[in-house]
Amino acid sequence: MSDVFYLNINFTDANRLEFTDLTSQINLPLTIFHDSELGGVNKDLIFIIGGVNWKDPDTSHVYSLNTKTNELSVPIVQGKVPPSRKGMSSVIYEGKFYLFGGQAATTGINTLYFNDFNIFDTINLNWQVGSLVNSPTARILHSATIVNGVIYYIGGKTQVTVYPPLTEIYQYDIVGNTWSLKEATAADPKFMPGSRAGHTSILIDGKIVIYGGFFSSDDIQNKLPAKETIAILDVNTLVWSIPEFDARVDNPIPKLFLHTATAVGEVMFIAFGNFTDKPDGFDQTNKDIYIFVFGYPQIFSSSLSLIKNMANANEAQPQIPTSTNTNINPQQPSSLSKVVIVGISIGSVSLVLTILSVLSIAHYKRTKKSKVQLGGVPNDPNSVEINDDKSHSEYQQQDPPTILTESP
């Protein structure tokens, strides 16, 4: 099943918050664990790259979805196409789609992690490669956030149970085509956020906000919630801090992984994903949309009706750009009056979120969950093969429900 839908977020009319189904108009192939960004000359095309094609796992097509006509196509692309993969990170900058890392998408016994750096030009439709000098080690399920032409890479995992600490912040300067490793600290060492994978990151008011994620170890095989569900990194000082929200005992901040995070002004929408704090045998999929308002007071709510109360409060405030995957200038306003979130759901619990504002299409994120076996791409110089004798698949299906789980 391949679902395509969008959610219109109207800050002046909360009664119009409803999903619109476009599945009958778009013949989307069954692909999971892909990455998607908005690009093209007019920034009105959704490019879908990577992932696992359910019928042909070795397929490495680039799909283009026209947001004006709902037409899906496979453009003719020049350059060497990278091996198919999943679990990579992506950002879009000046029409170029930057993808780092990921995991081999083909089936097999061993797990293969990549540390190659591929760049897809959505305007000229060609593949390029970026520098790997001083780049991170091979990893998956990390996050990438672009801030004024610099991509910040946070977290992920480099082996089945190896997670880099969040004191390590890799930066890639797009103009200089150079990598550097920075050290982050915490305002209070007791609240240093823990290592994680499968989290999200967005940019709000010049700060990177990470949310959710999981970790595991050789001793603890199940996914556990990352320490500090939500944390903020000041990009100027590289200091982590923990925000406070008006969460109650009966309405706790959800502990999720492989969810989506979307920023609209000073508001963060968290949707879909899986819970890390629900026991096996229970439905661990998230079916709600959670709202976090940054500023004063900071608010957390699981109800979309909160938007109605936010309309007047946001009216007089300067607007913050809306995307992790866009060149961010905190002084540049953006419209909050008409925002559309477009979702592409591939499989029963797989989807992609995109924000389209009145003036520009700003953001495209994805969440993907399904049953997949992993494998390797032989003789690839930019990959690391992880031998895992305990299991043929790192991702397994729980029945019911269909969720993403992991074994060592």
What does this structure look like?
With 408 residues, this protein is an all-beta fold. The chain has a single domain, classed as 6 Propeller (Neuraminidase), CATH 2.120.10.80. Helices cover 2% and strands 38% of the residues. The chain is built from one helix and 38 strands. It has one helix at residues 306-315; strands at residues 2-9, 19-21, 31-32, 35-39, 45-49, 52-53, 62-66, 72-73, 85-86, 89-93, 96-100, 103-104, 111-114, 117-121, 126-129, 143-147, 150-154, 168-173, 178-183, 185-186, 200-204, 207-211, 214-215, 224-225, 230-234, 239-241, 256-257, 260-264, 267-271, 274-275, 289-293, 299-301, 339-346, 351-356, 361-367, 383-386, 395-396, 405-406. A five-stranded antiparallel beta sheet has the order 2-1-33-34-35, with no helix packed on it. Strands 20-26-25-22-21 form a five-stranded mixed beta sheet, with no helix packed on it. Strands 4-5-7-8 form a four-stranded antiparallel beta sheet, with no helix packed on it. A hairpin with a 4-residue loop joins strand 18 (168-173) and strand 19. It is globular and about 50 Å long.
Strand content: 35-45%
The tally of beta strands, per DSSP, is 38
Task: Tell me roughly what share of residues is in helical segments.
Answer: under 10%
For the record, the count of structural domains works out to: 1
Summarize the biggest pleated sheet: 5 strands, antiparallel
**CATH architecture, please?**
6 Propeller
Distance between the termini: 29 Å
Topology overview:
Elements: E1 2-9, E2 19-21, E3 31-32, E4 35-39, E5 45-49, E6 52-53, E7 62-66, E8 72-73, E9 85-86, E10 89-93, E11 96-100, E12 103-104, E13 111-114, E14 117-121, E15 126-129, E16 143-147, E17 150-154, E18 168-173, E19 178-183, E20 185-186, E21 200-204, E22 207-211, E23 214-215, E24 224-225, E25 230-234, E26 239-241, E27 256-257, E28 260-264, E29 267-271, E30 274-275, E31 289-293, E32 299-301, H1 306-315, E33 339-346, E34 351-356, E35 361-367, E36 383-386, E37 395-396, E38 405-406
